[in-house]
Predict the 3D structure of the following.
Amino acid sequence: MATYIVLLGPPGVGKGTQAENLAAQTGLIHISSGDLFRENIKNQTELGRLAKSFMDKGELVPDDVTVAMVKDRLARPDCKAGAILDGFPRTPVQAEALSRLLAGFKGDVNFVPFINADPRVLIERLSDRWICRTQGHIYNIKSNPPRVAGRCDLDGSELYQRDDDKAGTVTNRIKVYAEQTAPLIAYYRGQNKLVEIDGTQPIEKVTDALLSVIRKGQAGMSWSK
Ligand code: AP5
Ligand code: MG
């Protein structure tokens, strides 16, 4: 039986950081809808052009194209054992679509860790974030600096700051999260899948908390690692 984990939480709380750590520990594939859009922007696809027009304003990309993109990714063979979903679903419409999609694979969302922190913490983290140009590895000049300034520890590529991490766009992303994504907290709590995690702890402590939640609920499920 495949395992599907949805990481829920506001912009900058550490979803991508934790998804990378969990993927390394569990062997499950990390799927970030934001990374998929950024890949499309880099490759100058039609989807990339559409997504950029929303992302630059800190608005959500429309549900239909987002669902189609994630559906395509989840159908690939490397997701057979399941996936760690980061940034998807982000609206009740997307959550319903995911549930239908996984039912088609004879699966379901197993866990929804909800990582949370105050807007003040989120804004500071995003202004200090740097990302690796080739593979999207995530750094922070204060909490998780690279060994060599401006270079990724893992592949040596250049680090950059995301266009949507500008102060005004970050404020709107947090507002959009509160209005359109936060309703998923009650949605998944109602399904008994939500587990709250304090995102203000150091990165390793958050990873430990996530692994313990997953392992506790994991009896009888098979992982690749
Ligand atoms: P997306 O890329 O998903 O961005 P986001 O949700 O706004 O979240 P971030 O990636 O900014 O933060 P994160 O939680 O991953 O934090 P990170 O680990 O990097 O989406 C971008 C845009 O794409 C959206 O605005 C929308 O337009 C579009 N989009 C994407 N998905 C969509 C969807 N489903 N539907 C519609 N539109 C969609 O960490 C942040 C920083 O903090 C880093 O520097 C990190 O090193 C540091 N850090 C992490 N954890 C800690 C810690 N515990 N302590 C100290 N520092 C930490
Ligand atoms: Mg992210």
